[in-house]
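Internal ticket #5521
Category: modeling
Description: The requester needs a full-assembly model to guide mutagenesis choices. All entity lines are attached below as received. Residue total reported by intake: 236.
Assigned to: D.W.
Attached entities:
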Amino acid sequence: MKIGVLVLEGPYQHQAADSAYHFVQAALARGHEITGIFLYTDGVNNANGYIKPPGERNIAERFSELAAQGIDVVACTACARFRGFRRDMVAENVRLGGLGALADYLRGADRFVTFGD
Amino acid sequence: MSEPVAVLMRKAPYGSVYTAEGFRSTMGIGVFEMDLSVVFVDDGVYALVKGQNPAGLDMKPLGDGFPMLPDFGVSKFYVHDQSLSERGLKADDLVMDVEIIDDAGVARVLESCGIVLPF
């Protein structure tokens, strides 16, 4: 099955970003395809490459890893601007993009799952 | 043919970013000619009320934007009747013509859309 993912919450404050990561891992393990992960609103903060949590899971690295596996992970450009992101801050393999990416993930998906508040 | 998409507006227009982003994503996705419905329930119905003036919050009125969405290819708007009546609102209080639907209508619209984006 083709599954698209939307993340509306940032790292560490709530579980949404963690749940999204674990969901994608589980879906891949069962042979499903991820059409893309769109990081929207505070969700763009999950793509901050400067995240360095002492002794804890690195949420930005997790999304980097997923992107390195060939999954399209896009953080909303406009939301990033609203949150003071510069291009050089974006975690490796993640890219900034517009709502067209979200539209693509929606169109390509049999199921679409939102993680947020 | 891709699944029809419903954008579900659940929250008050100010106090959180959800309604504003629900609006922006509707506009942003709408231009890609997708089959898109916008459904307003609970405090989400306040987004369509006429005469919003959030200047005291240093924000722009969100209600002005929705009537422009048909220009972006979005033409299906549904409002939950009980959410309106519980808030003392009527169809005349809204910034645009919408289809007023009951519980079963909301269920029907959401069921007919393979994808629901909750805001």
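Resolution: model delivered.
Comment from assignee: The radius of gyration of chain B is 13 Å.
Ticket closed.
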